[in-house]
Design goal:
The protein has one domain: Jelly Rolls (Sandwich). Helices cover 0% and strands 45% of the residues. It is built from no helices and 8 strands. A 4-stranded antiparallel beta sheet has the order 1-8-3-6, with no helix packed on it. The protein has a 4-stranded antiparallel beta sheet with strand order 2-7-4-5, with no helix packed on it. The radius of gyration is 15 Å and the shape is elongated.
Length: 98
């Protein structure tokens, strides 16, 4: 179970801080030190993550990493464009070793 913990880490305990927001148009979420990203399509339009992951209305997708691994690339969000209500909730999680 603890195979994913690097040998040079002294602690396996982390505090978590979250930040959230809502996207209503095509945008890019810049990497700023977060380790996981949850995206939930709360609108009625299909959206695409990084041009290859389709997220239907009401569904969610999670980029989930171990706490010491950061997301280091922009996450692109684009809407298909046929529905009137476009909305995507995102929650970024920041981990800090204790």
């Amino acid at each position: 179970m603890d195979n994913w913990i690097p040998k040079n880490k002294k602690s396996i305990y982390f505090t978590v801080k979250t930040s959230n927001g809502v996207v209503t148009d095509a945008t890019s979420i810049a990497p700023d030190g977060y380790g996981s990203l949850l995206l939930k399509n709360t609108g009625d339009d299909t959206l695409y993550i990084n041009d290859n992951i389709e997220l239907l209305p009401g569904s969610k997708f999670i980029f989930d990493n171990p706490p010491y691994v950061l997301i280091n690339e922009h996450t692109e969000i684009k809407f298909k464009g046929f529905a009137a209500f476009k909305q995507c909730l995102f929650i970024k999680s920041y981990y800090k070793e204790v």
